Amino acid sequence: MNTAEPRWVQGTLVALALAFMTLFLFVPLATVFVEAFRKGIDVYLAAITEPDALSAIRLTLLAAGIGVPLNLAFGIAAAWAIAKFEFRGKNVLLTLIDLPFSVSPVIAGLIYVLVFGLQGWFGEWLRDHDLKIVFAVPGIVLATVFVTFPFVARELIPLMQAQGIEQEEAARVLGASGWQMFRRVTLPNVRWALLYGVILCNARAMGEFGAVSVVSGHVRGQTNTMPLHIEIAYNEYQFAAAFAVASLLAGLALVTLAAKYLVEQRVGRQMRDSPRQGGQSE
Asked: CB neighbours of 131 closer than 8 A, spacing ≥ 6?
């Protein structure tokens, strides 16, 4: 049965898709860069190098620099456990991994406030020990970790399940220890999916707004990340400063998309080769 659509239908669908992408993606993206450089390069450089902007950039990099490695370790451990072993609570773990996808980031931030805030469950103990989590850097890091921890695990689990356990069993028969098996067999087989997950995790960490906004307290020069700094500058009609910092995030998004595309090609090729290799090993 011929299911090919007429040429005019294909052309119409392509035109609609391009028009939609132009209106909702390309035009806003171009507007960010146009507005960022509207008043000249000197104003742009001044906007991204003033103390509050530099503090926001440093805090964003710090939150991502802590959150991404933690999620990397968790994602590898969770994916290895789920894909290679059978245990009670496996479905519960899978559900918990998906939790940040179903919970609003604002609600996640509010939960941290209710737990670690001054009136929260541990608020009195934290105050007595002179520890501050909410409205401080630790709260921002915790919120960032929460909203980003599914990305690495969710990229690794399908690939590890497709690869099966034959290669690990062969390595075990040959006398490899658990660490040797992981380092020389499992990790090389998932390196591109791992990199893909890290890219997505880092992009989300640096662009997170909702959860971080709730736990940050919006303290200038201390707890404002780049998205929060953009919001404050825009609300105060400092449009040049807002668009200048926004252009940094937009540039990061473009780099992320390019890296994501390149790695996605390798991951797709690896996923296609995995069943074939599994069939050969059988």
From this structure: none
> What is the phi/psi pair of residue 258, to 5°?
-65, -45
Neighbours of 26 (CB within 10 A): 11
pLDDT digit string (tens) for 30-82? 999 999 999 899 999 999 999 999 999 999 999 999 999 999 999 998 998 88
Contact 121, 114 (CB under 8 A): yes
For tokens 């926004």, name the residue: 246
265: which residues sit within 8 A by CB, 6+ positions away? none
pTM of the model: 0.83
Are the C-beta atoms of residues 260 and 196 closer than 8 Å to each other? yes
Alpha helices in 22-134 (DSSP H): 27-36, 41-49, 51-84, 90-97, 99-102, 105-116, 123-128
Report which of 152, 147, 72 is spatially closest to residue 102, judged by C-alpha positions. 147
Residue 140 CA: distances (Å) to CA of 3, 72, 120: 52, 18, 17
- Pairwise CA distance, residues 135 & 148, whole Å: 20
Residue-wise burial string across 110-125, b where 16 or more C-beta atoms lie within 10 A, e elsewhere: bbbbeebbeebeebee
CB 137 within 8 A of CB 58: no
The Cα–Cα gap between 158 and 272 comes to 12
Distance from C-alpha of 281 to C-alpha of 173, rounded to nearest angstrom: 15
Say if residues 233 and 221 touch (Cβ distance below 8 Å).
no
| Tens of pLDDT, residues 158-173 | 888 887 777 777 877 7
- Give the whole-angstrom CA distance, residue 67 versus residue 51: 24
